[in-house]
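Human: We require from you a standard protein entry with sequence in single-letter code and fold as tokens, and nothing else.

Assistant:
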Amino acid sequence: MGLLGWALIFLVVALVAGALGFRGAAGAAATIAKVLFGIFLLVFIVLLIMSFLGGRATAPAVVPLIMPSLTLPTGMGVPAVFTNALALAA
């Protein structure tokens, strides 16, 4: 549950406590609700400003896994130089 949810819960508690005559509890719950709503509003405004100033995200560049210049005619993806070196080492 987020800040706004908790603020609404404390607002309801304050209203119920005030209706039942618990003035001290109603005042405390109302104060907590005001503080939580203020924090929520502040965070919302900061994030809204950041979203406007941040601009639009760009898509990441797509990098191919195997470069086309390194593929063999058989499609193995290993240059002939390395294939000959591996054959000599074995």
